[in-house]
Amino acid sequence: MLKTLDAVRDVSTQATRALAAIALSTLALAASSLPAFAAYPDKPIEVIVGYSAGGGTDVLARVVGKYLERELGEDASVVVKNQPGAGGQIGFTRVATAKADGYTLGTFNLPAAMAMTYDRKAAYDVDSFDYLANVVHDPNTLVVSKQSPYHTLDDLIQAARAEPGSLSVALSALGGNDHFSALLLAAATDTQFNLIPFNGASMARTALLGGHVAVGTMALSQTIGFDDELRVLAVLDDKRSPFAPDVPTAKEQGYAIEMGSYRGFVAPKGLPDEVKTRLRAAFAALADNTALRDELAAQGNALDIRVGDDYRALAKAQSETAKALWQQHPWK
Q: Signal peptide location in the record (predicted)?
C-alpha cells in the first residue's frame, strides 16, 4: 500500500514538474514574441527643435524634456537637437519624415508650422504627424508705448478708422501669430493698418518703444518685464491671463479676436500604439506638475496641456485659419 502511495506521489510530482515546464515555456515564448517597443524607451529620445539654441522653443524643449524623462521612467533620456532654418520648416520636415518608432519627436509651433504649408512648398501637412501634446499657450496682445496717446483699444480703433492705413503695426514676421492677429484685428474692426514685419519679436518691440510704429501685436510673454514702457490694450484670448489680470480681452471690448502661439510636441505619423499611449500618458501627467507650471510661469508661459485628439483638433483649426488668411491676404 505504501509503495502504491509512493508511486502516486511520484507520478503527481512528475506531472507538476511537466506542467511547470510547459508554463515556463509558454511564458518564454510569449515574451519572445513581444514587440521590441515593449521596453520603450530603451535608448535616448531625440527632440528636434527647428530653431536656434537659447530661443523660446528651445528653452521650452529643454525644460519639458527633464520632466518628461521622470514620467517615462528612471532610464529615460531626452536629448534636444537643434536644426534651425527656414523659420522652423527644416525641423518640422525632419520630424515628419523620421522613422515612427518613438525615438524622434519634435517641437511644434502653431500657427506658424501650418502657415508654411500654404505660403511655400512643404514636405508635410497637418496629417503628417502623431500629435502628442500641446504644452503652452501664449496669447497675443495689442500693445502700445506708454507714451502713446491710445489708452484703450477703442482709442486705437477710432484713430485707425479716421485714417485707414495710417497706423503702423509692428510684427515679428509674416505668416505667424503676430501677423494673423493684425489681419484678424483689421477684419473685426473693418479698417486697415500698415503692417511692418521685423526680424523677430525683440526688434518689433524695440521699434515700438522707439516710437517708430504706433502699435504692436506680440505674444503676452514678450511684454512681461516692460510694464514701465509698454501699455497692453487687449489680450487676444477667450479669458483674461493670470499674467495680466487687469488687462481685458479683445472679446470683452466687443471684438471677437483670438490668436496666440501654441507650442507642443509631435512625432512622425504611425507610432506603434503602445509607444503613442505611453508618450501621451507621460505628457498628460505633466498637467498636474506644479514645478513645471512654476518654471514655465517664470518665463511668462501658461501651461496648457492638450493631449492626443484634442491637440490634433487644435492643429486642424489653426491650419484652417492659416489657409483662410492666406487665401484672403497672401503674404508672399
A: 1-38
